Amino acid sequence: MKKILLFSLLCSLVVSSSVSAKITYNARVPLPGASKANLKLQADTLMPVYTAAGIKVPKCTKLSIYDTAILKQPHDMVMEDGKYVSGSWSEQWAVKACGQNVYVPIEFVLDKDGATYLIDNSKVHF
Length: 126
Hints:
Layout: H1 2-19, E1 24-25, H2 39-56, E2 62-80, E3 83-97, E4 100-111, E5 114-118
Parallel strand pairs: 1-2
Antiparallel strand pairs: 2-3, 3-4, 4-5
């Protein structure tokens, strides 16, 4: 019984200390670089990008996007009433994670309902 109680207490301590680690990240838009995403789309994509980078550098608590680049130029772009309503393109966002450069490729797709993005974690790289 004492071993189980001690083990439970130890597990609680480990979990609570890992949960309380403060993660800091830069969340300001517009992002640096060549991103074609509008400000709302950039803001919506920030946390998934930081999550993908954090998987590559799991103990890092300080993350910052320092550049964005176009991988595949926008194509099939359709504009209605001064707003793009369809099309797609690919970007790569560069994240500084505890001194390491992590590159997160993102696929953006616009349609009449808004925009979606896809991050394939298997393509995130150093």
